[in-house]
Amino acid sequence: MSLSSIELFAGAGGLAMGVTLAGFRSQAVVEWDKWACDTVRENQRLGNPLVRDWQLIEGDVRHWIRDLDSRGLEGRLDLVTGGPPCQPFSMGGKHKAHRDDRDMFPVTVEVIRRLKPRAFIVENVKGLTRSSFHNYYQYILGQLQFPDLTRKGDESWADHFQRLQQFKTAKNHGPMALRYNIIPTLVNAANFGVPQRRERVFIVGFRSDIGAMWSFPRETHSLDAMLHDQWVSGDYWDRHRMSAKQRPAAPDSVLTIVARLKGLGLLPTRQPWMTVRDALVGLTDPRKTEGDALNHRFQSGAKAYPGHTGSPLDLPAKTLKAGDHGVPGGENMMVNDDGSCRYFSVRESARLQAFPDGYAFHGAWTEAMRQLGNAVPVTLGHAVSASVAEHLLHDDMRQSLSRQLGVVGYTSYA
Questions:
Q1: Contact 23, 3 (CB under 8 A)
Q2: Residue 85 to residue 99: CA distance in whole angstroms
Q3: Which of 29, 41, 109, 386 has the CB geometry, 3.0–4.6 Å to 22, for a possible disulfide?
Q4: How far apart are CA 33 and CA 12, in angstroms?
């Protein structure tokens, strides 16, 4: 059985590629940025099987939804996904939240309200959960839970929030009220095999008629397992063919954890965190053989300064950044074995975001890095959407059996 999806704010396509890997068939992929659209189009031209059949729509989501009613998708769509622009909530942004005209959460809610998908996946930055945004974050969750309870023309967001809370505590929402069971989760991508410490919020919702008892997928990788691999068994260094003389000294803070691991004598139950060194296996230094891989060119100008000292090779990378005006100085760079720093190439950054090596990025280094800095790691997007797909398919089986047995009790929004 085929599952259908649309992607909003698709960027270079990281989350949408994960959704496609999970078995969903895309009905629309919407993105306004020219360079990101060029990236998707180029990979369609190259025949990439994950993006080949996407219906790419270049333009503002706010314009796209004007004729949404004519698309015939209402109540027939399985999944809506997307990462609304994060500048209003990012640590490096202006922190305006609802006062920022780049806040695309209202548009996201409107799409969900009108299409009534069986499920949605919304991704955003960790900054959304900071204490100064607490009320607005809860307001976002309330809107996603009850998208039919729309904001009145002259109503402030605070008054609308209060009305949503009152509705939530009411005993009777009405038999046909559109509502979603939502599960917000703060996730570190490194715990899912991504070679990058990247914390993001995922808000996953299932329509209330869907019998899904969903929780976020279990973490597969851990810091303890990485430290065991490096400093207890030593397998990590053996894999990278590094002699004892080539291996760095373990920091005192690490030695304390290693002593605990040795004392417990327990083998890790998860896989080790992936490191920068792991991610870059097979890629030559772009300073020596520039351009021998796709999008793998040396970018000069990297400088370390307090607070921006680059990513050590033997840890997951620090979070890749996008920035309003390109990559900030001192960001998105690695620390070489000799202690020097250089910027990650676009291809190296793509590996840190789990994009396949054959996936081409359009635009200059700054533009390509902006696309990557805003992306969802492909493997993380796949893990989340595959779990959602599994629950949707189980619900299909449940409802099919109910109909065969003549059991009444499910609601159709088609």
A1: yes
A2: 14
A3: 386
A4: 9
Beta bridge partners of 182: 205
Structure-token pair, residue 301 = 């100008």
Of 144, 274, 148, the C-alpha closest to 202 is 144
Q: Residue 12: which of 366, 374, 328, 286 has the closest Cα?
A: 374
Question: For residue 277, what are the contacts with CB-CB under 8 A and spacing of at least 6?
Answer: 240, 313, 314
Would the pLDDT of 408 be above 60?
no
Tell me 67's DSSP state. Answer: G
Residue 151 burial by CB count (10 A; 0-12/13-18/19+): exposed, middle or buried? middle
Which pLDDT score, from 0 to 100, does residue 97 have? 43
Mean pLDDT of the chain: 89
Can you tell me whether residue 17 is helix, strand or coil?
A: helix
Name residues whose C-beta falls within 8 Å of residue 200's C-beta, 6 or more positions apart in sequence. Answer: 123, 124, 125, 126, 186, 187, 189, 376
For residue 288, give both structure tokens. 């020596």
pLDDT for 31 equals 96
Contacts of residue 209, defined as CB under 8 A and 6 or more positions apart, other chains included, come to: 410, 411, 412, 413
Extended strands (E) in 259-365: 271-272, 311-312, 333-335, 341-343
Alpha helices in 170-300 (DSSP H): 223-227, 235-239, 252-264, 276-279
Residue 350, token pair as written in the block:
């793509």
- Rounded CA-CA distance 169/264 in Å is 47
Query: Which residue matches tokens 């040396």?
Result: 298
Any idea how long the chain is? 414
Question: Which pair of structure tokens corresponds to residue 346?
Answer: 């676009």
- Token pair 């796709």: residue: 294
| Phi, psi of 15, rounded to the nearest 5 degrees | -65, -45
pLDDT > 90? residue 170? no
Q: Phi/psi at 346 (nearest 5 deg)?
A: -60, -40
Q: What is the pLDDT of residue 242?
A: 95
Rounded distance between C-alpha atoms, residue 404 and residue 42, angstroms: 47
Q: Strand pairing partners for 24?
A: 3
pLDDT at 100 over 50: no
Catalytic residue positions, numbered: 86
Helix runs in 87-198, H state only: 105-115, 134-145, 157-169
Q: How many angstroms separate the CA atoms of 22 and 365, rounded?
A: 30
